[in-house]
Amino acid sequence: MTNPCLEGHPQTPRWTREQIRAARLAPLPPLLERHGLKTIEAGGGNILLGAYPGLVVKDSYWRWPERGLAGNAIDFCTQILHLSFHNAMRELTVQ
């Protein structure tokens, strides 16, 4: 028996807690490169993004003080790149 709520919708993958935890900690620089975002080294491991003035990335975390935003790699994908959670997971779990 099919679930009527899923009719007409493609099956979305189910992510394990371990996969989600790993995606949150995924390094952002490779993602920035894949998306063709211009990066500027700011010292101390911080990276600025030309397309997003004031946004600072370091490892798997980012902050945008002027907008009161910050978060992990999944948050970056959903809040900054406007990807769905599932597309963010796909991007961050690319091997």
> Span from first to last CA?
36 Å
* Number of helical segments with 4 or more residues: 4
| Strand arrangement in the largest pleated sheet | 1-2-3-4-5
Mean pLDDT: 89
Please trace the helix and strand order, writing H or E for each element. Answer: HHEEEEEHH
The backbone outline, from C-alpha atoms, is elongated
Question: The biggest beta sheet, please?
Answer: 5 strands, antiparallel
Rg is: 15 Å
% residues in beta strands: 15-25%
Number of beta strands: 5
State the share of residues found in helices, binned by percent: 25-40%
Q: Which stretches of 5+ consecutive residues score pLDDT under 50?
A: 1-8
Structural write-up:
The structure is a single chain. The chain has helices at residues 17-24, 28-34, 73-80, 85-92; strands at 39-43, 46-49, 56-58, 61-64, 69-71. It has 95 residues and is α+β, with helices and mostly antiparallel strands. The protein starts with 16 loop residues before the first helix and ends with a helix. 18% of the residues are buried. Mean pLDDT is 89; it is low at 1-8.
Topology readout:
Elements: H1 17-24, H2 28-34, E1 39-43, E2 46-49, E3 56-58, E4 61-64, E5 69-71, H3 73-80, H4 85-92
Helix pairs in contact: 3-4
Keywords:
95 residues, alpha+beta, five-stranded antiparallel β-sheet, 20% strand, disordered N terminus
What's this entry about, in short?
This protein is α+β, with helices and mostly antiparallel strands. The protein contains 4 helices and 5 strands.
